[in-house]
Amino acid sequence: MKRPGLATAALVLIVLAIGCGDGGVGPSEGPKVIVLGFDGLDPELTRQLIDEGRLPNFARLEAMGGFTRLETTIPPHSPVAWSSFVTGMDPGGHGIFDFLHRDPETMIPYSSTAAASSGGRFLEVGRWQFPLTSGDYEQFRHGTPFWEVLEEHGVRTTVVRMPANFPVSGTASRELSGMGTSDLLGTDGTFTFYTSELFADRDISGGDIVELDIYDDVVEAELLGPDNPLLREPVKLTAPFTVYLDRETESAKIELGDQQIVLRVGEWSDWLEVDFEMMPTQHLRGICRMYLRALEPEFELYVSPIDHDPMSPAAPISTPPDFAAELAEAVDRFYTEGMPEDTKTLTEGVFTPEEFLAQAKIAGDEVAEQYGYVLDRYLEQEGGFLFYYFGNVDQIGHVRWRSRDPEHPAYDPEADAVHEDLIPTLYEGLDVIVGRTLDRLEAEAGLGDGGATEPLLLVMSDHGFASWRRAFHLNAWLLERGYLAARTEDPYADEGFLLNVDWDATRAYGIGFSGLYVNLRGRERDGTVTAAERLDLVRELKEELLAVVDPETGEPAITEVHLREDYAFQDRTAIGPDLVVGYAKGYRGATESASGEVVGEVFSDNDSAWSGDHMMDHRTVPGVLLVSRPLGRPARGIVDLAASILAEYGVEEFPLLAGGAATGSP
Amino acid sequence: MSLLNAALRAVFDVALGPFAALPPIVPVTIVALVSGIFALLVYRWTSNQAAIAAVKRRLFGHLLEVRLFNDDLRAVLAAQLRLLRENLTYLRLNLVPLLWMIVPFMLLIAQLQFHYGYDGLEVGERTLLVVDLAPAEPAAAGGDQTAPRPPVELEAPAGVAAETAGVWVPSLRQVVWRLRADEPGRHELVVRVDGGEFTKSLFVADPEGGASWVRRSPTRRRAAILDQLLYPAEPSLPRGGPIERIDVQYGTAAISFFGLFDVHWLIAFLILSLAFAFALRNRFGVTL
Fold first, then answer.
1. B97-123 pLDDT, tens per residue?
2. Which of A440, A634, B66, B70 is deepest in the core (most CB within 10 A)?
């Protein structure tokens, strides 16, 4: 056989080199449908800003298809509402009732959406242990995600940052996990604040403060990772770094691994790679950002929570697994934790509002920039479904809402008045996103042409927002009314997490931000209330709660209380609360009570930076829904939206589980 | 060595210039082809071809021996020993051509590394300029790590912005600037120390995709032999001068291997040059 000529072979190679490009995307059934999920977008403020002409693209969308208030879930908490959006079911169906659940067998609280487990079996050799089975993450949400049904009907779906979708479902064509995604430590995000200030170390929520010494203007420190999973005894993984201070130029050179950066005081770094060595051949990789806060009078350096490196994540954050890397290569590395705005820096007094807003802007800009790439890719394909989530307004709203409320107990005219227009400005940023999407859909996909496959744009939020002025300590109220008893003589010597509850003398207790549970015999580990007594007890509790009046304002603090029998599909009864408390606008369950702690007062002023919220009477905090054309199957509540989206593709049967029928459909 | 490096820089800049706007696998393939042919010719001229052919025949014979007498343990072990001996002979016969090739290939690889081993900065991207000063005279330092800030200045050309003042790190005798690339092209940074001027090149890639794959140098060092061999992309810094080295951070580049996967250029080069050498060995009458 004659061999191919050399020139021919070289030509083939050269043509291959030039011709091999990025792979395209396959066809997809049905029209283009884009859902922009704006967490916490409040209908009242949206209406006001549209009327003031500050949201021209929202107004444009309203004129095209309409603007309605979208009924939220009971309770109106983000993981609950988004899970209802995903599955078309109420909490009884999808099993997410709050941010926190408790295990009735151990009475230990846990995150409601997901948990990590280490490898089940290990081979132990000396001080080492080698996993024989891989560790895993468990998603607690039940039900079928609506995009799974779409995929089964030939619709390619892209779902980016869907809350309560960690680990990713694995059923979308492209998927990136959102709210609920942990950092490398397995927490919701734990920052580290390094300081040379003496006695600065204190216990804070969501972060660690590390005191360190400076020698010859050189700081030697370590980034702290999780426990080394390959060691039998728990030993933290560490990554050393060195900071060289130059006080004259108010700058510092920082060395981390083989990376070097220079920061001036007040500057943020780009993403830095963090390499934790578990053993010489095994590494755990993450990323972080640094913020050089001060050199004098004290050295202060903030290090963000160490996130999964999207180039090689150690957790299932995307589908396909390399989608996260694709996004990172297309734009840049990015926060992979579920809620990247580091609100704890503000609530714990580590950052000023301006510093927090600078950090939140970095996080928000990443999401917006990445949306540009995702939209480009989506518009390249035929048809298909796209969901993209924006959480900036929600997270900043939580900690800066009081700037809009001079009546808030923690309102500081000097510090807050300057941010009075902050949240409307964030809404204007979302308006730009909407405008860009409308323009692209009109130019490239036939939006507004009235064709049979005219695309559809939905803008929606999971709930609205309100000022949170007063806190209600549910467990303190239960103690005061004799429903709950403490183990210690001083009932307020309580470390939280239900550890001080005298279960033998307790009939009801609170955990989570709205959940009230009966200490039910046969369900709870040390239950005292029989099944026959339960219904009378929950009715009694409901009556008493609805009669609670705030002695300071004379206003009712609770305006709705739902028995599980009244609002939730009767499944997951071991997990779901017996009662869901709906607080009046301006009130919310206290954070201490949510984590199972009893404090010495039933009501308190909310003096935290966390001044805006939505975990109230669900009727007072509806979400928004704007559509570019009327929906074929209208949606009254967020729980109905999945069915509406499926109907756009001709799929009428949803949700798939019996008893999980949408609750608000006309 | 400096003259040789200067000549090689000129040769490679001219030779690779026409490919600067093409995917780097194209010039790497062509250089691999030329290198494969060059290696075959060197091999043919410098190796004992008859001895190599003989040792290969013996190797084949001993392999057959193992296969045929596999029921005779002594015969198999003896054949294994002979295989080992012939292998060592084969390696010895290959040493001579390898020695002839090692120097030209080192020079070639060093030059190619600076064309295809580093990503150019993109417009808007930041990097550090790190100037390592020579150790202070013992009298001047006095053993004090917090030595006074030396009078080191940076002149950044148009198209490159110094975002920070020079950060002085006395314990490392290092001055560091953070730079931002504003315009594409090859820029010359000027560092002034003790009245002397020292330049350092900085390459910023063209966002329009122009001639991106050109020589870029992450480091300029003093004139030590090994450094001149490994870092020939810029003229050496003067011996005895106030600066030991000047570094600019470039990312490590990966090139697309015919669209199949991304790989360091050196891996692609080795694979291709070996493939070409094997494919062409009969045409050049070489026994490998």
1. 999 999 999 999 999 999 899 988 999
2. A440
